[in-house]
């Protein structure tokens, strides 16, 4: 766990409040420093600019979720070698519950990423997740098709649209400040809806 000085902790606390209230683009470095009660020189002793401060607030949570998501993709490929592909949608739902709990364990960081990150390297975070999901899932279903476990074919553009709608919907829990309990119920119903749709389109065996 990262250890912070009292000065650094105060900068992070005030910075988070400023970014949540105004978003990255409209947040004022001068305002952050003033509210924290320090000089700009003190700030620069820790962070070279407000982008670095934003990154310090979100990078660990956002980057970890991305890596966990990649691990989930690899786990689906393991189902092929273990001849358990019928469990694919169940595995996806299990991971979804893990992800939503991780998001709520780091709620402020994801609120910043989803709602306040315009102008930062995280502004396309959801899009990056969608692109990764589409790319890996297409390869996965291609392998299942070769094994005779999938009959249907989904156009790439449609696949991207459906996946984008799914991820946008999942992160609506953060946008609308739902409670953890509400979010878990919401995304599990969402998973049922999308799983039924995918089953109909792909005609899984």
E-strand count: 0
Shape: elongated
Q: End-to-end span in angstroms?
A: 46 Å
Strand content: under 5%
Rounded average pLDDT: 90
Task: Report the order of strands and helices.
Answer: HHHHHHHHH
Helix content: over 70%
Work out the count of structural domains. Answer: 2
Spans of 5+ residues with little confidence (pLDDT < 50)? none
Number of helical stretches of at least 4 residues: 9
Largest sheet: number of strands, sense, barrel closure: none
Computed CA radius of gyration, to the nearest angstrom: 20 Å
Alpha-beta classification: mainly alpha
Features:
mainly alpha, 205 residues, 77% helix, Arc Repressor Mutant, subunit A, 2 domains
Describe what this molecule looks like in 3D.
By secondary structure, the protein is mainly α. It folds into 2 domains: 1-48, Homeodomain-like (Arc Repressor Mutant, subunit A, Orthogonal Bundle), CATH 1.10.10; 58-202. It has helices at residues 6-26, 29-36, 40-44, 50-81, 88-105, 107-115, 125-146, 156-175, 180-202. GO terms for molecular function: DNA binding. Keywords: DNA-binding.
Provide a compact summary of the structure.
Helix content is 77%, strand content 0%.
